[in-house]
Write a structure and sequence with these properties.
Blueprint: H1 5-22, H2 31-62, H3 64-67, H4 73-81, H5 85-98, H6 102-109, H7 115-127, H8 132-139, H9 144-158, H10 162-171, E1 174-179, E2 185-190, H11 193-216, H12 223-242, H13 270-286, E3 295-297, H14 299-304, E4 313-315, E5 319-320, H15 323-329, H16 332-339, E6 349-350, H17 357-366, E7 380-384, H18 388-391, E8 394-395, E9 399-403, H19 404-413, E10 416-417, E11 426-427, H20 435-446
Antiparallel strand pairs: 1-2, 3-4, 4-5, 6-8, 7-9, 10-11
Helix pairs in contact: 2-5, 4-5, 5-7, 7-8, 7-9, 11-12
Length: about 450
């Protein structure tokens, strides 16, 4: 049986690539060729991945997997690729979605999208077709995290029943432990966005404490390490407050009269048992909800009951939530903050070095992560465009949130954000887009 022209061409390319990789002298590659070679191989990988994604639905249709004794096409593809069945299923689903998304398929064929980007855009665009072009444009410059956030918003806006989606995610919530091949303990969880925000609100202050302690001791730790240490510290503090499991000071769960009695209830008079349960319920009701961060919601969406178009309803830096859930989370103080728009925060000038609370809220609203294009880090410092030592004030339109890495590039190596607002590139001192060079060019042209 003769091969098709496409199969012959791909086989020829594969043979050439196999020979090139087999004979590749890693240490002999000149320094100036290392990065371009890596980029070429990445482009080749993208194109090969694109062809695999596009062919996936045909693999299922031709049923070779059935003839070779596999349970499904995903099982067959996972066996061939040496990957997971879950990943193969995702590839197959994306392949089917692309048949209805020709613009995304064209970008994939051209090598402009990675497999991860394609999966996210195809999923979002299949729910909300009007967002496809915008997501493809964003993918060219944004980080995967930023694209993921945009796709989440697109799916939320296009979801015909966001409350049902929220309930389904809550119903399927889970937390489980695994061990990796090295023997390390791994913790995996999945749940609703507001549950994640509540968890973060408890963890973030401890991360800040550990960061300050490490800095005072001259240690440099990554945020990921500090976050793990903060998780363990949170568990330790919880144990210290309530006592270890089995001790008398552990607060027993609140139960109704219809439920089974707790251990030890038989020795306690019924009236005392009832008083204890009433006290527990009172204590539970008196607990104030923790600070879940910044709830970003357009007033029109809040009044209407759902988002439309480009409107937002999300917990900044975490993700979208249904408007009905946002209404449940709003306390009176937060509600006042949301609907009171009599002060234009952009025009507020503060004489201190740090932004006011109002300014900080506005910064979180418009830029919840690093200002540098392609960077999605949310642990940021507010950088003054005009050095505070010269201006002695903090204006919102003169502040740029920067992660630690990009703040160091600006402060110590002279890098700078290009002129503009919002997410934009950060360039080295010799780049013509650097503000200092742009000003010099403008002066020269004026002269």
């Amino acid at each position: 049986m003769s091969q098709s022209r496409d199969a012959t061409a791909i086989k020829k390319v594969l043979g050439g690539l196999r020979d090139a990789v087999a004979g590749l002298d890693i240490e002999g590659v000149p320094d100036e060729e290392v990065a371009p070679m890596w980029a070429h191989l990445d482009a080749a990988e993208r194109l090969a991945s694109a062809a695999k994604v596009l062919l996936a639905r045909r693999v299922e249709q031709c049923e070779i997997w059935r003839r070779e004794g596999h349970r499904s096409a995903a099982d067959y593809m996972a066996a061939i690729a040496g990957g997971s069945i879950t990943g193969a299923r995702a590839t197959l689903t994306t392949s089917k979605r692309l048949s209805e998304l020709p613009t995304t398929e064209a970008a994939l064929r051209a090598g402009r999208l990675s497999n991860a980007q394609t999966t996210r855009i195809a999923e979002a665009a299949s729910v909300n077709r009007g967002t496809e072009v915008g997501l493809l444009k964003l993918a060219a410059t944004a980080s995967l995290r930023e694209l993921d956030d945009a796709c989440s918003r697109a799916k939320t806006a296009g979801d015909p029943d966001p409350d049902a989606t929220y309930r389904r995610i809550h119903r399927n919530r889970r937390l489980y432990e695994t061990r990796d091949p090295e023997g390390a303990w791994c913790l995996h969880g999945r749940g609703t966005v507001d549950a994640g925000a509540e968890f973060n609100s408890a963890l973030e202050p401890i991360i800040d404490e550990l960061f300050s302690r490490a800095r005072s001791e001259g240690r440099r730790e990554t945020r990921e390490r500090l976050a793990f240490d903060a998780l363990i510290e949170l568990a330790r503090r919880s144990t210290q407050e309530t006592g270890t499991a089995g001790e008398a000071q552990m607060m027993p769960p609140v139960v109704s009269e219809a439920e089974t009695t707790e251990p030890g209830d038989a020795e306690i008079p019924r009236s005392n048992r009832k008083q204890r349960r009433l006290a527990q319920r009172k204590q539970s009701r008196s607990r104030k909800p923790g600070n879940l961060g910044l709830l970003r919601i357009d007033i029109e969406a809040l009044q209407r009951g759902r988002v439309e178009g480009d409107e937002l309803c999300e917990i900044a830096g975490v993700g979208p939530i249904p408007v009905t859930r946002a209404r449940e989370l709003l306390t009176d103080a937060v509600l006042k903050l949301v609907i009171t728009r009599g002060v234009d925060v952009l025009s507020v000038t503060h004489l201190g070095r740090s932004p006011t609370v109002a300014q900080q809220m506005a910064l979180l609203w418009q830029m919840p992560c690093c200002s540098v294009e392609g960077c999605s880090r949310t642990w940021v410092q507010n950088d003054h465009r005009v050095d505070w030592a010269m201006s002695h004030h903090s204006r919102l339109d003169e502040l740029d949130p920067l992660c630690h890495h990009h703040h160091n590039l600006k402060t110590r190596q002279g890098w700078a954000l290009v002129v503009g607002k919002g997410k934009r590139a950060m360039v080295p001192p010799d780049d013509p887009r650097h503000p200092a060079n742009a000003e010099a060019g403008g002066d020269a042209n004026a002269a």
